[in-house]
C-alpha cells in the first residue's frame, strides 16, 4: 500500500530537520531556516509536529534516567529487539490498514491488555483470591491488575486497575503499602478496599486504621468505617455506598437508595461489552441486592423494577435509558 | 452473514457463530486459557469498532486477522518487557529503579515501539540513534557502516513513517 502523502509544510519541516543536522548545518542553513519558520504560522505548527514525535516517551525516559541511571540504556537495548520470527510469520501479508480499524481506546478500557503482564490479574466477571507470602489475603474484583513487590524492608502492592480487598497480615517491621496512580495507602494490619478508576482512586477502611498518603506528601489518618476519594487535586471523604462496602467479594452488590449510575458502574467489570447508561437513567434511585455473577439477570431485574428501558444489542452492547 | 444492515444484529450473529471457534483458535496459540478468553473478547470489540460489519464476506478470515493483530501485539509487548527486564538485571544493584520508574520506562518503550512498528530494521536503528542518543548523521553512518546518503534516506523514511501512521492503529 502506498503511504499517505505528507502535506507541504510537514514535508518541508522534515527536510529542515534533516538539513539542520548539528554536525553539518552551516550558519546560512540556520538563517534560512529561521526565515522559513517566520514566513507562515503553518510552518511553526509543522515543525512542532515533526520534532514533537516521541517527545512524551523521551521525556519520560529522561526523567527515569535522572532518578535511576541506566534506564535509558536499558530502554535502548529493549528497543533493539527485533520482532520475533513468530510474529513476522503470523503477520506476513496482512494488510490491516485495509480493514480500516479504529478505536483502540474502547478496547483497552473494556479488557485491559496490560493486565496480562501484571503479577495477578482478573478478566471480566472473574474474581480471584490470592494469599501472599506474608499471609496477607487479597481478593481481586473483576478486571483488576496488580503487581506485588515484597522485600526485607517493605511490602508493596501496585494496583494498576480495578479493585482489591486486602486482609493485611500484621508485620510491625514492614508496613504494607498499596500504591495507585494517585497516591498510596499504608497500614500495618488492617482490612481495607482500594479501587483504581480512571483519574482517581478510592480507599475504604473496614477494620483498624490506615494512612492515606497523597502525591504531595500530605497524610490523612482514616479510621474503620471511613472512606476517601483521592486524585491529583487532593482528597475528599467518600460517603458510605455500595462502592465502599466491598460486598462484591461475596458476589453481590447491595444498593440502599443509591443512584442507578453508581450501581451500573459497579456492574461494569462483570459485563463483557459496553454498558451504556443515559444521564437521566443514571439518577434513578435504586434499592436491593443484585448478584454480579449473573449480570444478565441483574439487568433484567432492573428493567422489571425501575422505570428504565434496557436494550441489548447482541452480547456486547446494552443500553439503559429512562422509560 | 444475514442481509441486514443493523450493526448490532450483525455483531450478535457474528459472535454467536464464531466465538467458540475463535477462542479455540486462540487457545491453541496461547498457553493461558484466560489470555485466550481476553483476546477473544477484544477481537469482537474491535470488530464492533470497525464499522464495516456489513461488508464482511468471510467472517472467520476477518476475525482471524483481527485476532492475529492482537496476538502479535501481546507477544511483542511481552518480548519488549523481557528484553527490558534482562537489561535491568545487568545493572549494578545500587541503580535499581523504583516501581514507578519501571512502569514509566516500560510504557515509554511500548509507545516508541508502537510508533516505529513496521519500519525496516536499519531505518529504525538510525532513527533511534538520532532521537534517543542524539547522534548526528555522520556518526550514525559510521555506527551502522553505511553511507551518509543512506542514513539521510533512512531518517527521512522514519519521519514519514511516524508522521503518516494512523494514530488509532494499535
Overview in brief:
With 323 residues, chain A is an alpha+beta fold.
Mean pLDDT of chain A: 83
Return the CATH architecture of the largest domain in chain A: Sandwich
Terminal-residue CA separation of chain A:
49 Å
Low-confidence stretches of chain A: 91-116
Q: What spatial form of chain A do the alpha-carbon principal axes imply?
A: extended
Hey, which two chains have the biggest interface? A-B, 79 and 85 residues
Your description of this structure?
The complex is a heterodimer of chains A (323) and B (170). Chain A has helices at 8-19, 27-39, 41-51, 55-67, 71-79, 85-91, 104-110, 260-267, 279-282, 295-305, and strands at 120-121, 128-131, 137-140, 145-150, 155-168, 176-180, 183-187, 190-197, 200-207, 210-214, 219-222, 227-231, 234-237, 252-259, 274-277, 285-291, 308-312, 317-322. With 323 residues, chain A is of the alpha+beta class. Chain A folds into three domains: 8-51, no CATH class; 113-237, Jelly Rolls; 251-322, Phage tail protein beta-alpha-beta fold (3-Layer(bab) Sandwich), CATH 3.55.50.30. Chain A starts with 7 loop residues before the first helix and ends with a strand. The model of chain A is unreliable at 91-116 (pLDDT under 50). Chain B is mostly helical. Chain B folds into two domains: 1-96, no CATH class; 118-170, Arc Repressor Mutant, subunit A, CATH 1.10.10. Chain B is built from seven helices and no strands. The longest helix of chain B is centred in the middle third of the chain and has 31 residues, at 59-89. Chains A and B meet through helix 1, helix 4, helix 5, helix 6 and helix 7 of A and helix 1, helix 2, helix 3, helix 4 and helix 5 of B. Chain B: This is Sigma factor, FecI family. Chain B: Residues 14-79 form the RNA polymerase sigma-70 region domain.
Amino acid at each position: 500500500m502506498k503511504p499517505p502523502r505528507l502535506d507541504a509544510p510537514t514535508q518541508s519541516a522534515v527536510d529542515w530537520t534533516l538539513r539542520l543536522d548539528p554536525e553539518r548545518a552551516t550558519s546560512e542553513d540556520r538563517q534560512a531556516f529561521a526565515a522559513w519558520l517566520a514566513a507562515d504560522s503553518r510552518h511553526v505548527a509543522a515543525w512542532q509536529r515533526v520534532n514533537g514525535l516521541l517527545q512524551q516517551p523521551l521525556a519520560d525516559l529522561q526523567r527515569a534516567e535522572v532518578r535511576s541511571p541506566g534506564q535509558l540504556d536499558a530502554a535502548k537495548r529493549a528497543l533493539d529487539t527485533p520482532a520475533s520470527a513468530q510474529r513476522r510469520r503470523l503477520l506476513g501479508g496482512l494488510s490491516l490498514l485495509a480493514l480500516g480499524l479504529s478505536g483502540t481506546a474502547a478496547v483497552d478500557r473494556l479488557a485491559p491488555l496490560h493486565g496480562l503482564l501484571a503479577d495477578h490479574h482478573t478478566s471480566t466477571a472473574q474474581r480471584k483470591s490470592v494469599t501472599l507470602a506474608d499471609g496477607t489475603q487479597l481478593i481481586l474484583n473483576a478486571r483488576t491488575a496488580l503487581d506485588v513487590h515484597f522485600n526485607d524492608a517493605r511490602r508493596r502492592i501496585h494496583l494498576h486497575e480495578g479493585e482489591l480487598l486486602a486482609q493485611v497480615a500484621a508485620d510491625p517491621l514492614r508496613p504494607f503499602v498499596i500504591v495507585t496512580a494517585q497516591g498510596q495507602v499504608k497500614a500495618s494490619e488492617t482490612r481495607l478496599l482500594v479501587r483504581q478508576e480512571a483519574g482517581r482512586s478510592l480507599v475504604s477502611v473496614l477494620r483498624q486504621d490506615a494512612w492515606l498518603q497523597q502525591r504531595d506528601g500530605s497524610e490523612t489518618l482514616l479510621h474503620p468505617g471511613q472512606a476517601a476519594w483521592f486524585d491529583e487535586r487532593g482528597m475528599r471523604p467518600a460517603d458510605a455506598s455500595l462502592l465502599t462496602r466491598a460486598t462484591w467479594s461475596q458476589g453481590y452488590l447491595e444498593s440502599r437508595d443509591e443512584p442507578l449510575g453508581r450501581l451500573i458502574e459497579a456492574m461494569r467489570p462483570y459485563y463483557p461489552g459496553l454498558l451504556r447508561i443515559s444521564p437521566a437513567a443514571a439518577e434513578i434511585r435504586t434499592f436491593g441486592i443484585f448478584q454480579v455473577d449473573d449480570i444478565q439477570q441483574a439487568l433484567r431485574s432492573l428493567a422489571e423494577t425501575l422505570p428504565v428501558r434496557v436494550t441489548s444489542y447482541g452480547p456486547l452492547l446494552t443500553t439503559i435509558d429512562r422509560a | 452473514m444475514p442481509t441486514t444492515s443493523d450493526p448490532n444484529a450483525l455483531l450478535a450473529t457474528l459472535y454467536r457463530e464464531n466465538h467458540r471457534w475463535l477462542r479455540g483458535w486462540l487457545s491453541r496459540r496461547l498457553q493461558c486459557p484466560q489470555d485466550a478468553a481476553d483476546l477473544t473478547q477484544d477481537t469482537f470489540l474491535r470488530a464492533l469498532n470497525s464499522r464495516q460489519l456489513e461488508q464482511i464476506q468471510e467472517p472467520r478470515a476477518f476475525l482471524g486477522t483481527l485476532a492475529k493483530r492482537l496476538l502479535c501485539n501481546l507477544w511483542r509487548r511481552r518480548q519488549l518487557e523481557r528484553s527490558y527486564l534482562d537489561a535491568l538485571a545487568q545493572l549494578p544493584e545500587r541503580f535499581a529503579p523504583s516501581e514507578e520508574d519501571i512502569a514509566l520506562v516500560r510504557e515509554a518503550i511500548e509507545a516508541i515501539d508502537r510508533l516505529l512498528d513496521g519500519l525496516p530494521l536499519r531505518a529504525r536503528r538510525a532513527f533511534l540513534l538520532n532521537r534517543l542518543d542524539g547522534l548526528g548523521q555522520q556518526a550514525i553512518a559510521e555506527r551502522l557502516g553505511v553511507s551518509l546518503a543512506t542514513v539521510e534516506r533512512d531518517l527521512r523514511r522514519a519521519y514519514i513513517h511516524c508522521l503518516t501512521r494512523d494514530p488509532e492503529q494499535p
